[in-house]
Fold:
Amino acid sequence: MVDKVFAISLVLIATLIGAFGALFLKLGSKKLSLKFKNVFTNYKFLFGIFLYGISALFFIGALRYGQLTLVYPFVSIGYIWIILLSMYFLKEKMNFYKWLGITLIILGVSLIGLSG
Structure:
């Protein structure tokens, strides 16, 4: 039971870090160009890649302590983080279908968590 909770905690941390990674990739993509030098001076873009790497390490830890069939569906929580971060930092708008999607994700992940 402790391993299951620990694994789920790790994957939730991984999804949050990964969502911030996606946010920084989005912010960095505004200054991205085909010039090779620009990739290495685009600190937001590089930070996004770094956060994805850290996220992967947390996810690997989650896989070590939890069953794949339980842990992997929790990755979908990342979609919720992305929507919330996009609303706050990018001022993106929500609509009924996005809220419905969040509700269904929470319902699905809850059912999988209870069954594991």
Summary: Residues 2-115 form one domain. The mean pLDDT is 93.
